[in-house]
Amino acid sequence: MSKKIEFLGDSKEVLRRFPDESRVRMGHALHIAQEGGKTSYAKPMKGLGGSATVIEICDDHDGETYRVMYTVKIGEKVYVLHAFQKKAKKGIATPKTEIDIIKIRLKKAKELASK
């Protein structure tokens, strides 16, 4: 049975603005998550702490990096927590501002699942 997807914040609108190729790749990974699987290019995100597993889908397109974070470990839905284009400041680390958004939306997903 397929899980429903719930997009939190502006994640759906941001994802819609990704280049077509990246949007298709992200959509495929989210569909696999709905069916209970995980693609090879979706990896657990490190550094968030807590018991919820956040999965990161990363796609490089035309020299740009696009990311979508989701979780399937809360309730009965796939919660898409955040989508953004990585602006290279230094290294591959996720910027603190993006991590803060993910943490806030993870908390919101837990609240929604407990209702």
Q: Can you describe this structure?
A:
Helices cover 34% and strands 28% of the residues. By secondary structure, the chain is α+β, with helices and mostly antiparallel strands. It has a single domain, classed as RelE-like (YaeB-like fold, 2-Layer Sandwich), CATH 3.30.2310. The chain has a 5-stranded mixed sheet with strand order 1-5-4-3-2. Strand 3 and strand 4 form a beta hairpin. It is globular, with a radius of gyration of 13 Å. The mean pLDDT is 89.
CATH-scheme architecture: 2-Layer Sandwich
Structural class call reads: alpha+beta
Strand content: 25-35%
Strand segment count = 5
| CATH fold-level assignment | YaeB-like fold
Note the overall shape: globular
Quaternary? single chain
Q: Percentage of helical residues? A: 25-40%
